[in-house]
Amino acid sequence: MQNYVFVVDTNKQPLNPIVPKKARRLLDKGKAAVFRIYPFTIILKTVVEDAVLTPCQIKIDPGSKFTGFALVREGEVIWGMELEHRGGLVKKKLELRRAVRRGRRNRNTRYRKPRFLNIKRRDGWLAPSLEHRIQTTETWVKRLTKFVPLSEIWVEKVKFDMQQMQIPVVSGVEYE
Known about the structure:
Blueprint: E1 5-8, E2 14-18, H1 20-29, E3 32-36, E4 41-44, E5 56-61, E6 66-73, E7 76-84, H2 87-106, H3 128-147, E8 150-155, H4 162-166
Parallel strand pairs: 1-4, 5-8
Antiparallel strand pairs: 1-2, 3-4, 5-6, 6-7
Helix pairs in contact: 2-3
């Protein structure tokens, strides 16, 4: 798979992605300039009249550590990316903050009562690591809509039962 180059016109409206060879020629002739490094996008210097746009589909494969993105045009994958999530790092930083807070309570200072009964989670609360995963995926979808004409967004939604995969005859009470 070869990653195509995104193209925007002079008004920053998305055009059809092109092959890298064609983008290189446009850059060498001075008809385009680099608009963004990643995802690599060029901006045309001349106005394009009546451009025929072929909409793409963005397909997302979410995972716990990585999320895959693919842009598909007429059944052909034209661009792909793998996004690495920081979920473990978010959890580690929260634990560090918690340790500092506990250490503050154990210092030789006035007594500071631990607060835990007054904390209520709002409806729809998600763990910070999950929230980060959703927000970064959403950010990349918004970013790609600026550079590519999109018609559909597909998200793969799969749940796996690991125990059922290892022992196929497990059912009912045997799960316990």
